[in-house]
Amino acid sequence: MRELVRGKARFFLLATLAALAFRLLLVWQFPAVVDDSRVYADIARNWLQHGVYGITDSGRVVPTLSRLPGYPAFLATLFAIFGNDNFKAVLLVQVLFDLGTCFLVADMARRLFSPRAAQAAFLLSGLCPFLANYAAAALTETLEIFFTALALDLVLRGLGVGRGTEPGALNWLACGFAVAGSILLRPDGGILLAAIGAYLCWLLLRSLTGIAQQENLAPSLSPRKLISAGTLIALAALAPLVPWTLRNLHTLHRFQPLAPRYATDSDEFVMPGFNRWVKSWIADYVSVQEIYWPVPGSDIDVSRLPDRAFDSAPQRVQTSRLFSEYNEAHEMSPELDAGFGALAAERIRAAPLRYYVWLPAVRIADMWLRPRTELFPSDPRWWEFNDDRRWLTLSLVLGAINLCYVVMSLAGGIRSRAVFGVGLFVLFLALRSLFLGSLENPEPRYTLECYPAVVLLCCRIFQRAE
Q1: Is the pTM of this model over 0.90?
Q2: What is the number of other CB atoms lying within 10 angstroms of the CB of residue 380?
Q3: Which residue of 117, 217, 320, 383 pairs with 113 in a disulfide if CB–CB is 3.0 to 4.6 A?
């Protein structure tokens, strides 16, 4: 990559300046410090000031396991250097990480395709409004995307793909630690480990059956080296979780190697019935904002529920009754939760394919195709065309840009199907999408970790013979 940057110094200088200016504009005009940001910051401050990894509850610092320690550690480091709650410094450092992601994606494109494709990849990632938008948000996404790109790039290095590569154990160890960084930020970072492991198993199977030799694949793909690679990655990825797991056992007497599914502490009610009921009808991000997030704590307007939330008139009456009870105290009691659970069971029995296949598929499509405006003041119901003209225009433009990235990546994936190494990225996209379909909160930001792979496949369509 250094050779390419030196050879195309003017291009990379101008493209980097453009990407940097774009991100700085968003940091100054639309910095996002949301509720999750404040939770992470609270943990970071308590860790710094009291030596306790915990949250503030009624003036007391209470140990927590609701969030993994990656992002609080990042915030604590920056708060120690630049001062408590200096989110401006946090966002500026995230901008640098995001620029690093652009170079990593370009390096992967160079290794798999060509120097010209690497330049296209750098532009597509550097000017991507969705990556830039989250660099201006005090959330885990930017760091998660960086570690994802780093791990994928190191897999290509370890497999000996591309010029200037020195395959060796250090690449696999570094890849494992990059995966660990991803997992320590968000528990779904484990999907990256699963995708890399599954791809190495596929290569091992091909090697053992002789397909690799028939296709003249690199000698570094011998079974012994593939097994060694998988072992090193797994050890390096999982070892950093050991101290966290031991801490949870010692301090909170709970075996928790990751974070709880719903980011809850031991004394918090998880609402299994309500969550299952939501999954029996939810299909888009609008319902996450209007129904899922406000519970518990806020009033719910039942008229906001879509028609697919009811299979019959009696179900509509029962759902309205449950929400009327909820709206009285804004709390989800075990009895109320059981009522929602009974509704969910009835709906799932009536239409199991809807619950297990069709709704997950629609949620996946919504996360991939929705205009990514959740950090802007845009109305999430953009299709009703009653938003302020500026924000409606932004929704339509970002929706069109997102659609272009998705379509280009599909076209690039088809064109790249015979390129060795591309299967890793397709597998990662497929596994992550399937996982996201199982969630009851289809948030578009959850697909952002896929964007290094998306951009990589996009740039294939710009490649010419060299």
Answers
A1: yes
A2: 20
A3: 117
